[in-house]
Amino acid sequence: MRHWPLLSLRLTTPRLELRLPGLDDLDALADRAAEGVHDPGEMPFGEPWTDAPPHERARSTVQIHFRQWGTWSPGNWACSFVTVWEGQVAGVQEMRAVDFAVTREVTTGSWLGQRFQGRGIGTEMRAAVLHLAFTGLGARYATSSAFVDNTKSLAVSRRLGYREDGLAVEKRRGEAALQQRLRLSRDEWTTPDGFEIHGLEPCLPLFGASDGITDAGGAP
């Protein structure tokens, strides 16, 4: 689509493909949300969207993508890729930024359907968007955060080289909860082998990165 080239942007890794979802992808992603993302006794998200009944989780999963597309601007964007493993939509890997042209900083967030967890997919899909950020867009920093009891997310960040960047207190299910902030610089990042970016060049202005780096280990 000439006027919305993001639909042709793809990230590939040895096992995964990340892409902006089409309607069929959104249906499959909604199914993952309805099936479950975490144990009911846990809450890894500040906004407890997974406390809703399955049909509401499914609908809100579709709606958030429509909202992100409708409000996208070069100065404030959220790019949510569906992660595809062995032909199945497994979850979401998001990267977002405000005033990226100035800050050159992105923030990431993600979730996986429960039956896809424990396979290393979370680490690989985060690495894919870090490759996009640092190599494709020319970011200087990537940040992330997780509640201190979300050991799986924190383990992914540490495995990828993030450093601790302070603590914050946030509301979770009506109570105060401690969150660990993390930061990774471009100088500390090395892209693993087999990671490629496809269809990036026409998307650069939409990211506020017209001077980004397009020699990204794949077709621009």
UniProtKB/TrEMBL annotation:
Q: Say which domain of life the source belongs to.
A: Bacteria
Gene Ontology terms: cellular component: cytoplasm
Task: Report the GO molecular function annotations.
Answer: protein N-terminal-serine acetyltransferase activity; protein-N-terminal-alanine acetyltransferase activity
Q: Under which name does UniProt file this protein?
A: Protein N-acetyltransferase, RimJ/RimL family
UniProt-listed SUPFAM superfamilies: Acyl-CoA N-acyltransferases (Nat)
Q: Where is the N-acetyltransferase domain?
A: 16-183
**Keyword Transferase in record:** yes
Q: Which keywords does UniProt give here?
A: Transferase
